[in-house]
Amino acid sequence: MPTQTPELQAFATGFPVTLLHVAVTMAILLAGAGLYILLTPHKEIALIRQGNAAAGTSLAAVLVGLSIPLAISMHASTTLAEVALWGVSTVMVQLLIFRLADLVLHNLPKRIQDGEIAAAIALAGVKIATALILAAAVAG
Predict the structure, then answer these.
(1) How many CA atoms are closer than 13 Å to the CA of 61, on its beta-carbon side?
(2) Which of 10, 36, 88, 105 is 20 to 30 A from 21, alpha carbon to alpha carbon?
(3) Do residues 41 and 109 touch, judged by C-beta distance below 8 A?
(4) Is 105 helix (H, G, I), strand (E, B) or coil?
(5) CA atoms of 71 and 68, how far apart (whole Å)
(6) What are the two backbone dihedrals, phi and then psi, of residue 62, each rounded to the nearest 5 degrees?
(7) Residue 30 near residue 62, CB atoms below 8 Å
(8) From first to last of its 140 residues, what are the pLDDT tens digits of the chain?
(9) With contact defined as beta carbons under 8 Å apart, do 138 and 69 qualify?
(10) Residue 11, Cα to own-chain centre: how many angstroms?
(11) Residue 69 phi/psi, 5° resolution?
(12) Which one, of 5, 116, 130, 6, lies nearest residue 68 by Cα?
């Protein structure tokens, strides 16, 4: 039986940990997106099923906006506990920022519900911009 190289041993040890970190991060992403969907005044999933491109754009921005800080959090973390702690905290901050943006840019949820792409793009820009800033803060 051939001797395992150090590279194969490192992979065999590290790959399951990587998968676990990804699984936890994906669970946090899905929970955060689900919570966002519950907090929005309009029913985004129903609107998307009806072909509302503005709702699709808005939800896509939420997913990207949540994912950016999560990715940086996962990169900055070394243990599963850190991945979970940073992941949950960045999602909570992002959800707060998203909600504040919805309140400050009042009428945008109604405009998205009405299918206004311009409103969805503006909201997407706010969500992605805040995600990048939060990610940079986590990265230090």
Answers:
(1) 24
(2) 36
(3) yes
(4) coil
(5) 5
(6) -65, -45
(7) no
(8) 566 898 888 888 889 999 999 999 999 999 999 999 998 877 889 999 999 999 999 999 999 999 999 999 999 988 999 999 999 999 999 989 888 887 887 788 889 999 999 999 988 999 999 999 999 999 88
(9) yes
(10) 28
(11) -65, -30
(12) 130
Provide the token pair at 34: 């689900």
Q: CB atoms < 10 A from the CB of 86, how many?
A: 21
Q: Do residues 119 and 112 make contact, with C-beta atoms less than 8 angstroms apart?
A: yes
| Residue 138: closest CA among 63, 71, 73 | 73
Reported as type and span, the H/E element at residue 75 is: helix 53-76
Residue found under tokens 């943006």? 101
Tokens encoding 5: 């190289």
Cα–chain center distance at 76: 16
Alpha carbons 91 and 84: distance in angstroms, whole number = 10
Lookup: tokens for 125:
């820009």
**127: amino acid identity, one letter:** K
List the one residue out of 125, 128, 120, 129 whose CA is nearest residue 40.
120
Element (H, E) at 23: helix 6-39
